[in-house]
């Protein structure tokens, strides 16, 4: 069922996250995985653009590679890699298809398979049942969580990186394309943590000719005992409030944990921060979900 029941809506409003079981079929998941396999097989990333992606603050601020490659990726399809997969010259130490961390940030706009999924009638119906009036798609990512070394995602709030005024206008939709388990790095949430505002923000700095980023505020030390694991089976969709605190652990298993995720923003009465790292462009304004 694409629309939320009253009890599901209440649960989401209370916890800040919700698992919708079997939202996508096995066949729909297979189509997305097959398409991403083709993109990975065809990828050609110049050495100076081979960025090791990390969610740790100190590593984000000293990212190896051309930082513009990341900052200008909002209207492109670009490739980001795990830590320690390159030698000092930027050559792959492991096969490229096993080294990739994620592909982002405009799959929803430029790839026909992911555009179809993002704008599917059941996603539209789900957004309407959540009360969205004029939702737009802000960004999209395919996340690999590679076997044995897929990196952790430290505790964070999505609105740290995608800030809106007022808050509460951002929604993440996270689709499990493979089973997400305790062993391979499922999501963990602090229920109810979406009600306390945002503790820090990633903002653009510099004079505009060579954009860079920095953090405003600081991330609290979250009590580990507050997190609850949220396993998901292939085809499940996880709704993620923009301010809910969540994380995932390093993948220590021999199985990957593929997921497709994208973010919606209610555009009616909302200001997208001009300081956000991701900005709409003339080539790609944020596309409306309802077409």
Question: What would you note in describing this structure?
Answer:
With 291 residues, the chain is α+β, with helices and mostly antiparallel strands. The chain has one domain (6-272): q2cbj1_9rhob like domain (Jelly Rolls, Sandwich). It is built from eight helices and 15 strands. The chain has helices spanning 6-15, 26-42, 57-60, 67-71, 96-99, 107-110, 112-118, 121-129, and strands at 17-20, 77-81, 100-105, 135-143, 153-156, 164-165, 170-176, 187-189, 200-205, 212-217, 228-230, 237-241, 246-248, 259-266, 271-272. The strands form four sheets. A seven-stranded antiparallel beta sheet has the order 1-12-7-14-4-3-2. Strands 5-13-8-11 form a four-stranded antiparallel beta sheet, with no helix packed on it. The longest helix has 17 residues, at 26-42.
Largest sheet: 7 strands, antiparallel
Number of beta-strand segments: 15
Helix- and strand-based class?
alpha+beta
The low-confidence runs, each spanning 5 or more residues with pLDDT under 50, are none
**Residues in β-strands, percent:** 25-35%
Under the CATH scheme, which class?
Answer: Mainly Beta
Approximate helicity band: 10-25%
**pLDDT averaged residue by residue:** 92
CATH architecture verdict: Sandwich
| SSE order | HEHHHEHEHHHEEEEEEEEEEEE
Oligomer: single chain
At the fold tier of CATH, the topology name is Jelly Rolls
Q: What value does the Rg take, in angstroms?
A: 18 Å
Instruction: Label the overall shape.
Output: globular
How many domains?
1
CATH homologous superfamily label: q2cbj1_9rhob like domain
For the biggest β-sheet, the strand order reads: 1-12-7-14-4-3-2
Number of helices: 8
Pfam families: PhyH (PF05721)
Protein name: Phytanoyl-CoA dioxygenase domain-containing protein 1
Family: Belongs to the PhyH family. PHYHD1 subfamily.
GO molecular function: dioxygenase activity; metal ion binding
